Amino acid sequence: MKRRNFLTTSLLGITGVALANTTETEKRKNKRSLRFVHLTDMHLYPDAVPEKAMQQLLDEIHTMKDKPDFVINTGDNIMDSLKRSKEETAAQWESWRKYYRSKLKYDLYSCVGNHDVWGWSLKDKELEKDPLFGKNWAVNELGIPNRYYSINKNGWHFIFLDSSFFDEENHSYTAKLDKEQFSWLEKDLKNTSPKTPVCVVSHIPIISSSVFFDGDNEKSGNWQVPGAWMHIDARKIKDLFSAYPNIKLAISGHVHLAEKTSYLGIDYHCNGAACGAWWQGKYQEFPPMYAVIDLNEDGTFHSELIHYDWKQKSINIRQEAFKKSLQENENTL
Predict the structure, then answer these.
(1) From residue 171, how far is each of 41, 121, 203, 302, 329 by CA, in Å?
(2) CA 199 – CA 224 distance, rounded (Å)
(3) Residue 171 domain-assigned?
(4) Model pLDDT for residues 162-210, shown as the tens digit of each residue
């Protein structure tokens, strides 16, 4: 063999080994830690339409070839309890248990959505004495330790936030963390190893671009996003998060639209709605959907949105009643 050919062949062989080693290194570096399904905004209530749709959704999740380790729900589990009586709210939670929770075959971790909160918009002082008033009912139904909490799962740290802050003047809510919760969040992040990647879970987006299109927010000539649609304390949370480069991902729902916003090293994913437009098909361009998220040991991740097609039945009187309720409260998602 000529020397030139020998050198060329040798160099190619060395390069091939180096490339192979790099590939193996990358594979080890990106080894998956966890896979989970993210469901949000199911808005369940007693009716055949959400019952059938949820059955189809669960069938899809349960028959996944690459199975998830658990499921995360980010709120608005029931249609609405802000304005509903105790009896109506009880019926909705019963449908949540019947259509969904009793059939789900995976561990479930949840946070409270604004529509899971009971009685805030009823303006009834006597009702406020009920031990189930506010978020207590939802916390009990969801089986979570508190309205905000954190867990560790296979090398990742998950922080579940409570986004809904009671607006006493208007008997509604705004999106922000109360002082107690923010103080807890500071301590939780401080006590988490800087080598542990963090995923933040909330119902209402902390930072989102899709909120600009959820309504005629530019009709005044300036962009105006209501404080109930995205965290009004996003600047304060952003400043806190900037000290923790191990925060990698934040997931949410609430606006029924889907997008991914990357800001200062953190990816904020708003992952649509399981119910689409409150069981009326698409909401703007977005059909009913859920996300499948893979988390890797090195803090990287992969997220995929899955659209599921369900056959809509005729809309009955109960659906029309809920639709009317939504129209009456059009600025409250």
Answers:
(1) 22, 5, 19, 39, 12
(2) 28
(3) yes
(4) 999 998 888 889 999 999 999 999 999 999 999 999 999 999 999 999 9
Contacts of 172 (CB under 8 A, 6+ apart): 82, 120, 121, 228, 332
Total domains, the chain = 1
Residue 105 belongs to some domain of the structure: yes
Q: Letter for the amino acid at 99?
A: Y
* pTM exceeds 0.70, yes or no: yes
Report d(CA 87, CA 94) in Å as an integer: 11
- Amino acid in the structure at residue 119: G
Q: Which tokens is 77 given? A: 């589990």
Q: Which strand ranges, in their side-by-side order, compose the sheet holding 289-296?
A: 107-110, 70-73, 32-39, 289-296, 301-307
β-strand partners of 134: 118
Secondary structure letter of residue 118 according to DSSP: B
Residue 137 and residue 112 in contact, taking contact as beta carbons nearer than 8 Å: no
Q: Which residues constitute the domain of residue 141?
A: 34-328
Residues 203 and 254: beta-carbon distance below 8 Å:
yes
Q: Is residue 11 part of a domain?
A: no
* Cα–Cα–Cα angle for 264, 271, 304, rounded to 5 degrees: 90
Helix (H) or strand (E) holding 270: strand 266-271
Cα distances (angstroms) measured from residue 220 to each of 24, 94, 128, 228, 264: 55, 42, 37, 18, 30
- Angle among Cα 261, 173, 109 to the nearest 5 degrees reads 60
CATH of the domain at 265: 3.60.21.10
| CA atoms within a 13 Å half-sphere pointing along the CA-CB vector of 14 | 6
Token pair listed for 205: 């987006």
Residue 17 predicted with pLDDT over 80: no
Angle between helices 234-241 and 179-190 (to 10 degrees): 10
Q: Which residues pair with 166 in a beta bridge?
A: 173
Torsion of CA 279, 252, 146, 32, to 10 degrees: 110
User: Phi and psi at residue 267, in whole multiples of 5°?
Assistant: -95, 125
